[in-house]
Amino acid sequence: MILVTGGAGFIGGNFVLDWLTGSSEPVVNLDKLTYAGNLDTLVSLKGDARHTFVQGDIGDSALVGELLARHKPRAVINFAAESHVDRSIHGPEDFIQTNVLGTFRLLEAVRQYWSALTATDKDAFRFLHVSTDEVYGSLSKTDPAYEPNSPYSASKAASDHLVRAWHHTYGLPVVTTNCSNNYGPYHFPEKLIPLMIVNALAGKPLPVYGDGMQIRDWLYVKDHCSAIRRVLEAGRLGETYNVGGWNEKPNIDIVHTVCALLDELRPKAEGSQYATQITYVTDRPGHDRRYAIDARKLEAELGWKPAETFETGIRKTVQWYLDNPQWVANVQSGAYREWVGKQYGAER
Ligand code: NAD
Ligand code: TYD
User: Fold this and answer.
1) Residue of minimum CA distance from atom 20 in ligand 2
2) Is 263 a catalytic residue?
3) Cα(58) to centroid of ligand 1, in Å?
4) Residue nearest to atom 22 of ligand 2 (CA)
5) Burial zone of 86 (CB within 10 Å; 0-12 exposed, 13-18 middle, 19+ buried)
6) Is residue 270 part of a domain?
7) How far is CA 85 from CA 151, 154, 201, in A?
8) Does residue 129 fall inside a structural domain?
9) Which domain holds residue 301?
10) Which ligand is nearest to the CA of 138?
11) Number of folded domains in the chain?
């Protein structure tokens, strides 16, 4: 039995679906179901006795303690977080609540549970914390850095430090992954790639921040999931593993790739190209210029390799959005539209 937090979100949802495809080991899935959590993602697991979904907060110590005592997981994998940089700029408080305080409370509940295990179970137990390359900040070509710049990345860095401290101070068996930008199925359409696909199909502008030359390093979500499984299996305690696909690309190239795939797979009836919808807009405040990940430690130590290239992964992703308009319509209703309306005062 494993306990996954945030398993109704983008990466956690993909992880749970992949896990239960390859394993008979059951999953307890604790998710608060914020705007970013969608049970639609898990609909194929309806009635599957290996999956127990619990709606709740990682910061609810009593609930987490009760779940741990009842299900006795051999591992906790923490995906739960507020994850969108733009939201963290407009309203950082939720990020501190969940990413910092929530992770702290989760660590404490897990430590209490872990302390009472038998010596063998204690040794075998793992707390895997899922984090981001954004904690490193904006990278120059030469200097490695650790400069979390946005409220989101600062809150994730805080959580990474707490996880590290719970290992060094209390001996909790932790491993942390810091991954680059993910893309793939079930990605909430407020992040760059799904937003561009969904807006393109709806005939809306494709908002590119600033000059569009910011660089992100992209990894297909299922490759992130396989890396997490590998680190869970064989990662060294207290270590941090960078996860990335060696796919650094400027945003504008990503947008053009999405447009070209849509031109091929769903050409517009009137014959114009999707790229004509590209609109340069005001830059994000404090926008990090470049993220990049050096994944050599994970590759050399644990033999992990991504299965997808950017070309194969992005094609699968665009096709998935074309095949799943109902998922998009469902997640875009209600709370999401309200938030966008409040922040931008207009349809995006
Ligand atoms: P997401 O926003 O799609 O999903 C987050 C999930 O956590 C949602 O289901 C939400 O309901 C749940 N959640 C939020 N607050 C909660 C709380 N207090 N208690 C319980 N559940 C809560 O995010 P994602 O993109 O799937 O990211 C998952 C994790 O991976 C995050 O920790 C993020 O920092 C990290 N990460 C993301 C990326 C990326 O490119 N998306 C890259 C590297 C690391
Ligand atoms: P995003 O998907 O929000 O991920 P992150 O900020 O965590 O890297 O954004 C990816 C890049 O795309 C980032 O440089 C900001 C940019 N971007 C746009 O240009 N337009 C958009 O509408 C969005 C959402 C992002």
Assistant:
1) 208
2) no
3) 12
4) 207
5) middle
6) no
7) 7, 10, 24
8) yes
9) 2-183+221-245+288-307+332-344
10) 2
11) 1
